[in-house]
Amino acid sequence: MSRTPDMLRALRHRNYRLWAGADFLSVAGTWMQVLGVNWLLLSISHSATSLGFGLFLQSLPTLLLAFAGGSLADRLPARPLVLTGQALHGLLALALAVIAFAGVQNVWPIYAVALLGGMVSALDGPALGRFGAEVVGPEDLSNGLALGSVISSGGRIIGMALAGALIPLTGTGTLFLLNGLSFAGVIAAVLCMRAGEMHPLPRARAAEVGITAGLRYISRTRWLLVLLGMAFVLGALGRNYQVTMAAMSEGPLAAGATGYGVLSVVFAVGAVLGGLYAASRPRLTFRILFAAALITSVGQAISGIVPGLLGFAVMLLPIAAAAVVLDTTVSTRAQLDTEPTMRGRVLAAQTMVGAASGAVGGPVLGMLCDTLGPREALVLAGVITTVVAFTAAVLLARSLGRTSPVAAAIVALRGPEGIRGIRGLRGVRRPSPAGPARRPAVSRSVRPGDAPRASRALPRPAVRRSARRIRPERALF
């Protein structure tokens, strides 16, 4: 009997296979709609400003309502929320199809649909995240997330290609109609999943529900704050490559629209390679996270120096791959190392950070490109994100119990294999593969990556009510 390769181990789950197929269909349809909406707005208004305003309306609800969606996801069963959200998205896509086929020459109905779509996405996004975790289970969650990034990249490429082919032939209405039908496929896949093979997460108790409880939990989880802070800075200054690729193509590279298309394809290929690498790893640790952060940051600085279109494209490949690994690892650690009852609100915070980094980083990078030049902007942003990545490594390691900043940086960047050579440093011990040490431990709150410190003189104390119990195999640095 053939054994599923480790890179594809999440596909052993029947429910995940259904989820992956539905995800590919949905992503392809979504990108068809994205290009269709952009083209429809431009054809009606002949203004790039109207296009930007439509994108703003679609992303605004994420900043305002994502935490409310996270609270709902932690309180209610995930499957009904997912089905409701997909049905609403399908209806909105069909509404766009009606607008396009009717030949409406007014942007406001499109703006209204964009705003409503953003509201639905903000409210059902955390439920989708929780449901995805329940489909695959904690052991294969990181692999499922990595394969999901590959599926999303593939769906994006297919969706954009189909949109480019269909717009001249049938117009934008067909794109919206196909996207609406894709949500029917997602609903069918969810309904076909076997309840007995799900891995349900515990729902929040009465005292844990609400936005305030979620904010309180995140604010006192220092390592998570460090992670989200680093994700924001790197996302704002190091991940808005749609801006810098366009500026480089138009300016120093003198490659025009053709060069911009080539760079976009290279970036998409790098994203697929990054997803495959992440899927091949048995665990996505903090070591991998900071390695990916440094590759994207240093690579961005170097990309501002290398000459020619070919050199810039070569630098884009590892940057795109590392960016996907970084995103997947942040999502994995944020989900596995936090309370399951807070999963929806943690995912909401991560979504808000992503939306905020895009909203802030795009204009900032554009301004830097206009004032300093595209090359100088890349170098400056790369240096800043490199410093932030190193700082986050030290802060994260210290928040997990490492008291020496130098030792913290070494542990963060070298990982479990590097701990052997510095075991004499205080607070640095390698977690045992068999589980926590059996010796009594000093009372303290357990954090991701912590290993118990032995003390022969003290008996085992009662665990604090607020302490989290993280299994060592999930919390490797």
TrEMBL record:
Residues 430-461 have a biased composition (Low complexity). SUPFAM superfamilies: MFS general substrate transporter. One of its GO terms (cellular component) is plasma membrane. InterPro entries: MFS_trans_sf, TM_effector. Residues 424-465 are annotated as: Disordered. Its main location: membrane. It comes from the Bacteria. It is found in: Cell membrane. The keyword Transmembrane applies. The keyword Cell membrane applies. The chain crosses the membrane at residues 21-42, 48-69, 81-104, 110-133, 145-167, 173-193, 223-241, 253-277, 284-302, 308-326, 346-365, 377-397. It is a multi-pass membrane protein. Keywords: Cell membrane, Membrane, Transmembrane, Transmembrane helix, Transport. Gene3D superfamilies: MFS general substrate transporter like domains (1.20.1250.20). PANTHER family: INTEGRAL MEMBRANE EFFLUX PROTEIN-RELATED (PTHR23513), STAPHYLOFERRIN A TRANSPORTER (PTHR23513:SF11). This is MFS transporter. It comes from Planobispora longispora.
